[in-house]
């Protein structure tokens, strides 16, 4: 075998070694983390603690359902007289919610009923709550996966 043949075989060997190395790196790398699915968190500015829960069972695709949002101060006192803006959508599909949910009643102890929620397809959804109450305006975003 001439020097050109040895160079070609050597080049193929280096390529095979590089492919093997990359395969090991990609196959053993940890999976990308999914969205944070916590249903309780501190609001963005830290004014409130907010928890969300479906009112009756986990929501299903296409069903109209209600949620209960609980808002407390950082010290744990219920927040009365809050008003909400509610938005969201599917970040991976760049579209909003198919309905216009709204807070319809105060249930006491910082709990508010949100009606008119609907998820039109399976996947990753975000719910964005803007809260205005005596302590000030703040917001929180929750991730859900159906």
From TrEMBL:
Give the InterPro entries listed for this entry: YtkA-like_dom
A Pfam family that the UniProt record links to this protein: YtkA
Domain YtkA-like: from-to ranges? 48-128
Q: Which protein are we looking at? A: YtkA-like domain-containing protein
Source organism per entry reads Aminobacter aganoensis
């Amino acid at each position: 075998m001439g020097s050109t043949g040895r160079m070609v075989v050597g080049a193929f060997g280096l390529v095979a070694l590089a492919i093997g190395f990359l395969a090991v790196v990609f196959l053993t790398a940890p999976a990308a983390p999914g969205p944070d699915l916590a249903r309780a968190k501190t609001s963005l500015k830290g004014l409130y603690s907010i928890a969300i829960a479906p009112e009756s069972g986990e929501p299903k695709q296409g069903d109209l359902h209600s949620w209960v949002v609980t808002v407390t101060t950082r010290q744990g006192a219920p927040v009365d007289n809050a008003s909400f803006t509610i938005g969201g959508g599917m970040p991976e599909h760049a579209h909003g919610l198919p309905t216009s949910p709204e807070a319809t009643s105060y249930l006491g102890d910082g709990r508010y009923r949100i009606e008119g929620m609907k998820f039109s397809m399976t996947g990753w959804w975000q719910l964005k709550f803007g809260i205005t109450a005596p302590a000030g305006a703040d917001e929180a975003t929750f991730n859900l996966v159906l």
